[in-house]
Each structure stands twice: as C-alpha cells, then as structure tokens.
Amino acid sequence: MEIKIESLATIHEAAKQFIAGIGDNKVFAFYGKMGAGKTTFTKAICEVLGVEDVITSPTFAIVNEYTDREGQPIYHFDFYRIKKLEEVYDMGYEDYFYSNHLCLLEWPELIEDILPENTIKVTIEEQPDGTRVVTF
C-alpha cells in the first residue's frame, strides 16, 4: 500500500488511511532518513487512535507507552541510540513485541535480528516537492 502525505495539514488523513490498511498486524518498523517524518507520522497515528498524552520521540527512553481511546496500550520505540542488542534484551523487548498491542518502531535497522517475523516494514520517503510517500 502507498499513501502520499501532501503536507502537515493532511497527515491525519494519511494516518487514517494507514490505520485502515494495517489489518490485524501489530508490529510496524518505520524506515526512513533522518527528517523523513517517522516521528511526525507516528504522532499522527496515535492522535487518530485517540491518544491524549503528549506524544514525543522516545529517543532517550527508547520506548513511550500511550493509551488509545479504547484503553489499549500503544508502544512507540526509537532505537536510534541503541549501541548493542543487549540494551534491547535488557528492556524486555519481547514483552512489548509479542503483547498483541500496537508497536511502532523507529530506526528498526539497528535491531533487525530480533524483529518478529510478522513485522510490517513501513518506508517513509521525502519527495523533491516536500511531500512524503509512506509505503508498506
């Protein structure tokens, strides 16, 4: 599936399209260059799902937990600062990845060896005109 984000004004509509297309999948690995919009798009997804908390990148915490409008947890990961896989083992990643709750992962290329088989790869690419294309 491919979704085009024309601007920040349309990002919530793009997030709705994404949510409509995810089916029963729970673990999504977001790939893209620095500044491509991974955190911004993740924030929009959470907002569409009814998260009322402040949504920020968990760069230093590694994972932020939010609650959607139905009371279900959403786990937002940022593995940018991971130096070795042992850090991910120590945080108990399996409890999150296999919880059957939505997991949104930024910088998954740093932990690909331990991603669940059913992880959906999501690519966000900035286009020359400034729009973004989300592919999964």
TrEMBL record:
UniProt GO molecular function: ATP binding; hydrolase activity; metal ion binding
Subcellular location: Cytoplasm
Source organism superkingdom: Bacteria
Keyword Flavoprotein included in the entry's annotation: no
Family from the record: Belongs to the TsaE family.
NCBIfam families: T6A_YjeE
Protein name: tRNA threonylcarbamoyladenosine biosynthesis protein TsaE
Lineage per the UniProt record: Bacteria, Pseudomonadati, Bacteroidota, Bacteroidia, Bacteroidales
